[in-house]
Amino acid sequence: xxxxxxxxxxxxxxxxxxxxxxxxxxxxxxxxxxxxxxxxxxxxxxxxxxxxxxxxxxxxxxxxxxxxxxxxxxxxxxxxxxxxxxxxxxxxxxxxxxxxxxxxxxxxxxxxxxxxxxxxxxxxxxxxxxxxxxxxxxxxxxxxxxxxxxxxxxxxxxxxxxxxxxxxxxxxxxxxxxxxxxxxxxxxxxxxxxxxxxxxxxxxxxxxxxxxxxxxxxxxxxxxxxxxxxxxxxxxxxxxxxxxxxxxxxxxxxxxxxxxxxxxxxxxxxxxxxxxxxxxxxxxxxxxxxxxxxxxxxxxxxxxxxxxxxxxxxxxxxxxxxxxxxxxxxxxxxxxxxxxxxxxxxxxxxxxxxxxxxxxxxxxxxxxxxxxxxxxxxxxxxxxxxxxxxxxxxxxxxxxxxxxxxxxxxxxxxxxxxxxxxxxxxxxxxxxxxxxxxxxxxxxxxxxxxxxxxxxxxxxxxxxxxxxxxxx
Length: 472
Hints:
By secondary structure, the chain is α+β, with helices and mostly antiparallel strands. 21% of the residues lie in helices and 30% in strands. Helix 6 (278-288) packs antiparallel against helix 8 (368-378). The radius of gyration is 24 Å and the shape is globular.
């Protein structure tokens, strides 16, 4: 299994500290770089990587090590340095642990997981070699076939790290699926879950009873024809190709925790004065009373919240799209992913946002109309959907059935309302009429959905509304 070891240090690892860590395999160990120098690798005698070390990352956002690792880091700001050992080589795992232990000792910090970084001694690796390319050519990928790239992760939360982003990107360019294999008890960051929607990409859980199952659907899996694929049930037919569902996936308990999920899209004219991220900050403040805490182009989110920096990054990457993750303060769990792209309509921001609430906390449902009005009047809202879900307060995605959310409201931007023929947007089949937002001469519309949050009847209202708006 691939092993990730992370050093969390108060001081930036200087060149001498990094050198001391890299000498954990002895002075004759081969070292090279990749990723335009951003990744340093300790290699075997054939030049294949045993351990890959990413450049230290300065984390200026509180709560990220706790959220992703369950670890206690130094006070912010601190430095996050990842070392990734190559699959199935015990000496490589020990090398990564010793590297992190030395770095933590010299730069005043700690290593995660603690049990992997207990020794500072040189690791003997004479005669050790690793798999040849292509499996070892990409440090994040553990198994590569003509159908999928397989990544084995042993972390409490599988996050959208720079490593994993690179694996998704590499697999997509090769027209392969990405399958992430984890032990029981692991959860996903929402940022990773949203990237596993394309077949044959999936989250694969090891399970004592079933062997393997899909953590997002519960389908029992087997390694078949070069990838993990669902097992066909004994009573399946061509018309009903059912697959068994793992018992572990069905072990659900209602903790009373909930999530308020908001998905919205805004479209701005391409203008030199445009500042991105304002829509997300407006709705975040309206629903929590505070702005987002931080953002980053990967997890951990390492930068303090700054719409100006986000705008500058998107401008530099244009016309290519920009993706980033946004997090809230530890006291109010919140996470958003934002994709900025340049289209014929202008500059589009597609945002998926969720806040977590405990059994004794009430989601601010009453603030939703005001939040929608802010988006419509100040940030050129195109559409917005709000749902309430029975799901974890910490926003982590468990390998258990959580069920769909219940739609609470839908909003349509002023331009979309204006373009709809026959005044269709104002005449709906719902018992509650839409609420105008903004100027009376050119309003956006907010549609309260009267479905009961305790069941799925809200989806029936939402589907009726969508059919109506589309003219069906």
